[in-house]
Amino acid sequence: MKRLRASHPLGTLRRCLQDRAGVSAVLVALMMIPIVGSVGLAIDSSVGFILKSRLSKSLDAAALAGGRVALSDNAEEIARQYFDANFGPTDGTVSLDDFHFELDESKEFVTLTAQATTPTYFMRIFGKDSMTVNGRTVIQRQTAGMELALVMDITGSMRGSKFAAMKQASQDLVDIIFGDRSEIENLWVSLVPYVASVNIGPSRTNWLATNDEVLKKPSRFDPEGWRGCVMARANPFDTDDTPPATQPFTSYRYPKTSDTNDNNYPPVKSEATANNDARGPNLACGAPIMGLTASKSAIDGALDAMLVSARGGTTSNLGLSWGWRTLSPRWRGLWGGTTPATHPLDYHTENMEKVVVILTDGQNQFHDNSSTNPPYSDFTAYGRLDDLGTTNTNEGRKILDNRMSGTCTAMKSAGILIYTITFGSGIGSSTQALFSSCASEPSMYFHAPSNEELRSVFHTIAGELANLRIYQ
User: Fold this and answer.
1) Which pLDDT score, from 0 to 100, does residue 139 have?
2) E-state strands within 52-159
């Protein structure tokens, strides 16, 4: 029988080394394990990083949206809607959990948290089938120093649900910027209602010309007395911020017109209980301006007491001009009442903004409630339509539109931020274009076709004015 000899160890090693293909395969296989693991880990880590970034950005957007309406009952719902919209579809692979919205006791900080889970691609080889990332965003609700004028159309076309919607939306804005505080340092708000005239308040007789009939023949306003509306000054003073010491005003008194039944008085019938059949020397004279005030309760009370005023037409150019005057430093010390003698502040005062929000539901126009011509229109702060040199209502509208455009330009040049809102389904393209061009930025013009959308618009503006910022 043949005897087998054991191979020498060195010979075996020599033969293995000579078999290079086998050695390479083994080495490559051994090296691929950490390489594949590293690549897989890198891929899964990248997926996790992208998911984390996506989650964080969505939480930021949701926090800012929810923070704008943090005091409303549906703040968390709104925040979740923004979160879902920004996160986008999950394709059935990513799961979102533990979305939480929290407003602290001070009503200053809003915290949002959420987590997202996604399946792994390579890490499951090592027994990890999924990974979870967590996100957290904290925003601080701050109100920068601001003088804000709310300029509101209270003409007869606003009667009913539209007027109620405007008052509620305005109240929402005030609630958002004040939060749960009754006053905030360096936050001042004025209210400027307008129709075809503007009411400065009956106590401001020192703004009238010295020979004005309110001062010389007050009985002409019997039995009510002068309510406070004034005529428009001659162009260009009708729509600028020249103070009354330089260009005084003339009291507004709707004339008796028994021959046309346009305003046959007495007796007096208040606008509060009448539509277009109101009568009296203060016909089409709406609620008075409230100058800048730091008191939320004063603002709330003025909004609550505000009523629609029928007749006359719509002069948004005058409403805007009076909004300007409540903010112009040229009127400092003139307003009295709730406005301190140190206000309005200078333009570009450090850490202060001057802002106007103006709303209308219609075009600038002269209304004619009479079936006879002349007088061509109801009486307004400009008198009758023909007092502007025309009997054509379209030409009259163009005159008012052009004056409003000039006021918009002057206010923006002075440093005032202007938000504009057109409201309702009957707004024409020319009015939308006018208000869009008046706004400080295209994004600061809003059209709200419905009551619900108007409230949303005011929430958006309030959120911007509340100066939300990401804190963490």
Assistant:
1) 85
2) 95-103, 109-119, 130-140, 145-153
